[in-house]
Amino acid sequence: MVFPDYRPRRLRRNEAFRTLIRETHLVPGQLILPLFVLPGKNIREEVPSMPGVFRISVDQLAKEAKECLSLGINSVLLFGLPEKKDGMGSGAHAKNGIIQQAIKELKNRAPQLMVVTDVCLCEYTDHGHCGCIINNEVDNDATLEILAKTALSHAQAGADMVAPSDMMDGRVAEIRGVLDENNFDTVPIMSYAVKYASSFYGPFRDAADCSPQFGDRRSYQMDPANSREALREATLDVDEGADILMVKPALAYLDIIAKLKEEFDLPIAAYHVSGEYAMIKAAAQKGWLDEERVMQETLLSLRRGGADIIITYFAKDMARLLNK
Ligand code: PBG
């Protein structure tokens, strides 16, 4: 059937028709809000390059958690800023480290909220790399043990799910093994399976104070030019025991999200990262874009592209809009 017999506009005539045939939806329960936690009391400081995003102290978490739950957001992703850093990132698995405190506080005060933790060393190392340095290189195998220890300490503190973001080879298997040995076989791994060496992480590195002090992350994070390599990375993580596969960043990598969705039957998460958030905020502040609509269109495109789960700093704003 072709024009004039067929007229696609018939089904776009009003909002009722449009709603009727809408293929993709955003749901607050599939959004994850990242939170930055720092030592101290009564702290709530805005990240300059991420308007509307705050670094908060542990005592502020309960309030944040209740707000999320009331909006239908069931999950948060925790990032920590430790009191002090060292060469091995030992603050990442300290028994009473910042994340361990944050997990306990959240599980005490808002047990229904799902606490996901970022497992990485870059916020905890004085050199800012995601692993420990041996002979001037980020040493893969020596880092694995520290990452597994970190994931275990999160599980022991009560984390519901761990999310390794370091991009070391073999870390999913190592973490799965250590969790299982310690009776945490019910704790899933959401693996940053396909994480690119991206400049879109700029604002995050301000927020989490984790810029590498020398070099960059290109010896472990993926080259933005590569797509087939994404399939290899994801296959490895599936074989090593990942429960959810993440692609990061999101918007510039929609093709990768779509590819993973097609090739794998695990849930796919997309991380709409700090730089993607900051671009929308900045343009909106200048009056160049309608923030609300661009936010919605962007996040919807991630779902359309294949993401089941979206990690975004817009989670609360988006949920508010959806709840209207
Ligand atoms: C590091 C980590 C990064 C992000 C999440 N985990 C930064 C990096 O790899 O440099 C970026 C998130 C964002 O930009 O919002 N472990």
Key features of this structure:
324 residues; alpha/beta; TIM Barrel; ten-stranded mixed sheet; two-stranded antiparallel ribbon; 11 helices; binds ligand PBG
What do these coordinates show?
With 324 residues, the protein is of the alpha/beta class. The protein has one domain: Aldolase class I (TIM Barrel, Alpha-Beta Barrel). Helix content is 38%, strand content 19%. Strands 1, 2, 3, 4, 5, 8, 9, 10, 11 and 12 form a ten-stranded mixed beta sheet that branches. Strands 6-7 form a two-stranded antiparallel ribbon. The two termini are 39 Å apart. The model has no long low-confidence stretch (mean pLDDT 97). The structure holds ligand PBG. Ligand PBG binds next to helix 6.
Summarize this, please?
The protein is α/β, with parallel strands linked by helices and 324 residues long. It contains eleven helices and twelve strands. It has one domain (25-322): TIM Barrel.
